[in-house]
Amino acid sequence: MEQSEELIEQNWYQDDSEDDIGYSFREYDVTSTPNDFNTKTIIDFIESGLFKIPGFQRNYVWDIKRASKLIESIIIGLPIPQVFLYEEGRNSYLVIDGQQRLLTLYFFTKMRFPKKEKRFELRQIFDENGKFPDEVLHNDEFFDDFKLKLNETGQTEKNKLHGLNYATLGEFKSGFDMRTVRNIMIKQNFPTDDDSAMFEIFNRLNSGGVVLKAQEIRTSLYHSKFYNNLYSINMYENWRVLLDQTQPDIHMKDVEILLRGFAMLLDSENYKPSMTRFLNQFSKKSKSFNAESLPYFQQLFEAFCNYIVSINPRAFISNTGKFSITVFESIFVAICQDSARNSNLIIKETTAEKIENLKNNPDFINSTQSNTAGKANVENRLKLAKEILS
After folding, report:
1. Among 58, 139, 170, 387, which residue's beta carbon has the most beta carbons within 10 A?
2. Are residues 256 and 378 in the same domain?
3. 310 within some domain
4. What's the rounded Cα separation, in Å, for the pair 178 and 11?
5. What backbone phi and psi angles, to 5 degrees, belong to 149?
6. Does 158 share its domain with 54?
7. Which residue blocks in 268-324 are alpha helix, DSSP H?
């Protein structure tokens, strides 16, 4: 079931990620230090902000049965997978692997379990507050009571922990509080100019579990005010119209498309493969963007969306009915690059006919069908779009 849902989630856009050339071979100097913390200490670390739960995992995905099994394992003394944390700075650790487990511990001690249909909204609340405020935790609109669900339908022998919550654990409570979980603290010593080792660790640690997409990883490593701006833009009504998707993508592909558009708009002259590395480097640059420029980016993009919707709301939808990332970024740069350079909101005019001419141009099509992340193809797409749309 999870596999089919994954396919559905990816099916709305044309995926060119396999054409990405990927990283060249690199060596790293990374320090890994093991620490055993009991569950009570871990909860304190989460609440104090010492352990930071990344944005993509604030959208909790476990169901009550899986969460209950983890709590049961801790109570009865079975080992659970270790947690990996990246040392961002003094007394500041980003959770690399183990977010779902840590949040399960947190929710269990709070005796509240997030409702599935409210989890995206809860992630936004966490982003704004750095935690789940008490008034939200105790709001039945967002949470149910967290009682262990360990009995299967038709099971004759009742599990003695079934139906208990943190407050009613009785003799098991102190054991649960004092049970330790192995934490691996990771620090990148070299290279010092980027966080590429952490990106690789995210990829490799999660390859055997819930597979993380590139933007989910990027969101945690490069969180910034610019990224907050992207989240806001991503909810803009006419952007959702152009995507032909009413709801945000659970793996943040729509946010990545926005990131890629702005990276090409503002930094295309520095592009070189791979696309993944380019977006990582641009994300790191964006952390130092002037906060005063961010409202302008949003205004420019909204003006662009409004204009495209007015001439052809399906401008970026391919013949297969999927959103074309390469068509979007080419048109966005062609229409908005002069505006961005001059910091104005004057959208360069084009026509629906010219957009169709671009999409049907043989050279443009060739540059979108294979090796789409190659430097020559990227440059050719942007060049053709500027020529044909003007």
Report:
1. 58
2. yes
3. yes
4. 45
5. -115, 95
6. yes
7. 275-286, 294-311
171 and 254 part of one domain: no
Q: Last residue of a domain, which of 190, 205, 234?
A: 190
Token couple for 134: 């008490």
**Does 128 lie in the same domain as 242?**
no
CA-wise closest residue to 264 among 105, 134, 378 = 378
Is residue 81 a part of any domain in this protein?
yes
* b/e code 277-313 from CB counts within 10 Å (16+ = b): bbbbbbbbbbeeeeeeebeebeebbbbbbebbbeebe
Instruction: Identify the domain containing residue 364 by its residue range.
Output: 224-389
Query: pLDDT (tens digit, 0 to 9) for every residue of the chain, 390 residues total?
Result: 344 334 344 579 997 765 665 545 567 788 999 999 999 999 999 999 899 876 655 568 899 999 999 999 999 999 999 999 988 778 889 888 888 999 999 999 999 999 999 988 888 788 777 789 999 999 999 999 999 999 876 666 789 999 999 999 999 999 999 999 999 999 888 776 666 677 777 767 654 455 668 888 888 778 889 999 999 999 999 999 999 999 999 889 999 999 999 999 999 999 999 898 899 899 989 999 999 999 999 999 999 999 999 999 999 999 999 999 999 999 999 999 999 999 999 999 999 999 999 999 999 999 998 899 999 999 999 999 999 999
Triad 15, 16, 21: Cα angle to 5°: 145
Residue 33 forms beta bridges with which residues? 185
Examine the domain organization and report whether 259 and 113 are in the same domain.
no
197 part of a folded domain: no
> 32 is written with which tokens?
């890994």
Q: Is residue 8 part of a domain?
A: no
Asked whether residue 385 falls in the same domain as residue 237, the answer is yes
Q: Look at residues 367, 386, 281, 383 and name the one whose alpha carbon lies nearest to residue 326.
A: 367
Which tokens in the block code for residue 388? 């044909």
